[in-house]
Amino acid sequence: MNDRLRIVNLLDDMAFGGVTRALGVFDTPALVALGDSRTVAVPFNGMVPPREQADVFIVHFTVNWRRVVFLAQLRARHPRAKVVLVEHSYTRAWEALHVANPRRFRLMLRLAMRLVHQIVCVSAAQADWLVDATGIDRTRISVIYPYAVNPGLAALPPPSPGPVLRIGAYGRLNRQKGFDTLVRAFRAGHFAGCELLLGGFGEDEAQLRALAGDSAQIRFVGKVSDVAAFLGTCDLVAVPSRWEAYGMVANEAREAGRPILVAPVDGLPEQAEPDHGPGDRAGLVIDFADQNAIAAALAELTPEAIAMMGRAGRRTTTGCGEQRQRQWAALLRAVVARRPAPVQPSPSAITTR
User: pLDDT per residue over 9-66, tens digit each?
Assistant: First the structure.
């Protein structure tokens, strides 16, 4: 093997999104110093892997029964290469909503996990669920939060709430993101004294506009091309997802100094309530379908609390890009050297203090 690692990322969806953006970590100094990285597109749900010169394959697609065959053939074709699986998709909430036969689903997961050398989960909650679902040894799972650079977020001035609290929400307008729950809560009057700025596009846009009706509290702002500019118009950000392995929107909001209101699912609570001190609470965890929970949250959102949570969110994202680089570099060195992967620190405890 050469001194420099040959790293091949395997991806079956090259559309610009959270997974594709997160691949930018492999173009950063710590990873460039470690080896040569490239991305190879593979057919969606294909079973035949490519032949590549690689020391490490990093798999970014969602596993299924066909992908179990793919992984088995990948190992057979490249017996000396290491395989790292990044689990971007499956979570406890996803399984509860989508899986009719948990025993069969979990069998597929166990088979897939046996065919890789290391698994990377994108939140601690996802890792805990995967251990519960498969019985896999926890030492074979590393937790590394995804990160993508968004210029201007760290330089935004803090929010200055006026008489009307401006709540931003943005992303793909589809069922996963739960924007219908948020719109219904606004229409029902649960967010009195607030305005909703809803950004994004997707298959549920017409349904959401119909739900919003003629509400003066809800404004659709279309595609969010400039995240910093959009967040600059918001006092805080709501993430009402039905399932969410991590939640890049919540990370971006924290970096922008905006408090977050997140649903109690998967990796979202980790971002609102880090485990390294109450003073670093970056937001609130609420059930957006519960009128009483919304009322309690709004009662907490005083100007002083918004300022404190905004500062905490920004503080917990300071240096997170460099931290992700170091985590990935350490993991890849360990996998190639056949050492146990290093124990990752709590992903929310990533400040440079």
Answer: 999 986 656 677 778 889 989 999 999 999 999 998 889 999 999 999 999 999 999 9
Kindly report the pTM of this predicted structure: 0.91
CATH of the domain at 273: 3.40.50.2000
Q: Are 52 and 40 in contact (CB under 8 A)?
A: yes
d(CA 234, CA 85): 36
In terms of residue numbers, what domain contains 79?
5-149+320-336
CA–centroid distance for 324 within its chain? 13
The count of C-alpha atoms lying within 13 angstroms of the C-alpha of 328, restricted to the half-sphere facing its C-beta, is 32
Q: For residues 63 and 47, state if they share a domain.
A: yes
Q: Are residues 21 and 110 in the same domain?
A: yes
Q: How many domains does the chain have?
A: 2
C-beta of residue 31 within 8 angstroms of C-beta of residue 22: no
- Per the CB < 8 A criterion, the answer to whether 227 and 221 are in contact is no
Bridge-based pairing state of the strands 218-222 and 283-285: unpaired
Q: Tell me: do 213 and 298 sit in the same domain.
A: yes
- CA 350/CA 320 separation, integer angstroms: 6
* Structure tokens belonging to residue 297: 């949250």
Summarised one tens digit per residue, pLDDT across range 256-287 is: 999 999 999 999 999 998 765 556 799 999 99
Q: Does residue 155 lie in a domain region?
A: no
Residue 110: exposure state from Cβ atoms within 10 A (0-12, 13-18, ≥19): middle
